[in-house]
Amino acid sequence: MVEILENLKKEIERTQVVILAGGSAKRMGKIDKPKALLELKEGWTLLDNELDFFAKCGFKNFVLVLGHMHEQIEEYVDKMGYKKRFNMEISVDSTTENWGKGKALKYALEQNKIKKEIYSFISR
Question: Which sign does the torsion angle of CA 118, 91, 80, 47 carry?
Fold first, then answer.
């Protein structure tokens, strides 16, 4: 049993978590920030919550797939030190048209931000 748990822990550490964080929160009304930066409580965003949850589960490799207002998310990630704390890649679809999550994932794969040789867990 201990060996099984150790193997599971190693797999989790090698797995990358792909977080689709490019939403505009248009159903939330007019706001001046991306959905990932909406605060659940003061100083604690949806993105913080997502990263914290997966980190507590043992995940260390993250890919943020960004779109709408990506600059704000990138600044926030830098400010919070997430790139130092985790192995983090950021993929920003450079096309001008928003084709949705599928295209954003395809772009991240084409840019080798999502590694094909290891397991990925996709969260949105």
Answer: negative
